[in-house]
Amino acid sequence: MRDLPIAEFSSDLSDKLREVGELWALSSHRPRVESGIRCHWDKLIDAWADSDLPLVVRKSSGGVRGGMITHMGGRNIILADNSPALWAFMRAFQGFTYSLDELRNQLESGSIPFAFAIKSSEKSQMKYKGTLSAADNLNKRGWKLCHIEGVGLRSATPVIDIPIERLVKHFRLLLKPSNHFLVYLSCAGLGELPQVIDEIRKYDGA
Q1: pLDDT 10s per residue in the chain (206 long)?
Q2: What is the DSSP letter of 82?
Q3: What are the distances in angstroms from CA 17 to CA 23, 191, 198?
């Protein structure tokens, strides 16, 4: 009986994937956030993390998106899907430079989305009911938002019991435009390839 070999990239295939990654990293067709705006947003997200505002955690279990829970250490946490990351990228891409107070107002007014869509049965459990607008939905424009450094928590531990330092790191990686890059939605798998990610990291300086 034939057995499958262990799956691994050959060096020549890996080199070709790096070439693809470099081509995309340098391509004029790849949407980017202007460097000064990106720096502003990185500092803004750091300020959010260090403030009394709730952290945002991308987690599908343990509550509803847009719902707020309290960490064992006392910090409030908003559960979300990837929609706040798309919102942050689009606002940075469009050149918005909010202050922390403006961000607080955006949060309180429900302007920051924490779900692509919500079910009527979830509304009563949600503190923040904003959903991703069509204008901010990159998928509808043919793009896939990817993260240079992975943000998945990969933990069955309830969010309220995960060390707060880990959640703060997750929050920063989730929302900082310096950790974002786009690929064509039709080639979404490119954004998961380490060879491509390495080239994006190299040229974006993230």
Answers
A1: 888 888 777 888 899 999 999 999 999 999 999 999 999 999 999 999 999 999 999 987 778 899 999 999 999 999 999 999 999 999 999 999 999 999 999 999 999 999 998 887 777 788 898 899 999 999 999 999 999 999 988 888 899 999 999 999 999 999 999 999 999 999 999 999 999 999 999 998 64
A2: S
A3: 10, 11, 10
How many angstroms separate the first and last alpha carbons of the chain? 47
Number of H helices, E strands in the chain: 6, 5
Name the residue among 8, 17, 71 with its Cα closest to residue 193: 17
- Identify whether the C-beta of residue 183 lies closer than 8 Å to the C-beta of residue 190: yes
Burial of 95 (0-12, 13-18, 19+ CB in 10 A): exposed
Kindly tell me the burial class for residue 82, based on how many C-beta atoms sit within 10 Å of its own C-beta (0-12, 13-18, 19 or more).
Answer: middle
AA letter at 97? T
- Which residues touch 206 (CB under 8 Å, ≥6 apart)? 148, 149, 178, 179, 200
CB atoms within 10 A of CB 9: 13
Q: Is 66 helix (H, G, I), strand (E, B) or coil?
A: coil
- Please state the pTM of the whole predicted model: 0.92
Tokens of 74: 């006392």
Which alpha helices (DSSP H) does the chain contain, by range? Answer: 11-26, 35-50, 83-93, 100-109, 164-175, 194-204
Yes or no: say if 95 and 41 are a contact pair by the CB < 8 Å rule.
no
Rounded CA gap, 149 and 176, in Å? 11
